[in-house]
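W.,

You were right to be curious about this one. When I first looked at the sequence I had no strong expectations either way, so I just let the prediction run and decided to look at it fresh. Below is the sequence, 202 residues in total, followed by the output.
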Amino acid sequence: MTEPVVHVVDDDAPMRESVAFLLGAEAITTRTYDSASAMLDRRTELEPGCIITDIRMPGMNGLEMVQELKRSGVPHPVIVLTGHADVSLAVQAMKAGVVDFLEKPFDDEALLRAVRMTLSQSGSDASRKREMADLAERASQLTARERDVFEAIVAGDSNKAAAIRLGISPRTVEIYRANVMTKMQANSLSELVRMALQLEQH
């Protein structure tokens, strides 16, 4: 088995280098690209592993690159980095097949955890079925109002937009949102979005 390679795509050289340095310090092999097109030029010869890409880049952005990789049949899982608290864009990215997203500035440990999980995620059918049953069980514990807030978050609504849509105060949305995170056992927004998409697909 050859070691997996993490392909890092970012037009920002210091960011690209710091991600490569962080992974290299953990003995994870990386290859860097300064644009989506530089990555796509090598799509037929990418070493197995995963891809980390910034979502906002000049020319083709990360989301468009993910869609293009998918069209080309590239199987690599993708982690997206976003410098903006742009939930709706992150949701779009996850619907396009991205496995995780991290907001910049991110915690080094969070990135390493995301990369390790992504590289190890082959997962058997049996464990996937068990995970789905667990998710469905957790979702069934949500009250009707919590479910409304869950759906609003996943649709990319801010607390304020969700409050207007549901006719409650933003503070109340925050409380429901915290309850949803706890009941669904989600550690991050990206995890919650992933759970919602899994539930939607079943």
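Here's what jumped out at me. Residues 125-140 form the longest helix (16 residues). And, maybe more interesting for your project: The chain has a mean pLDDT of 89.

Coffee later to discuss?

I.
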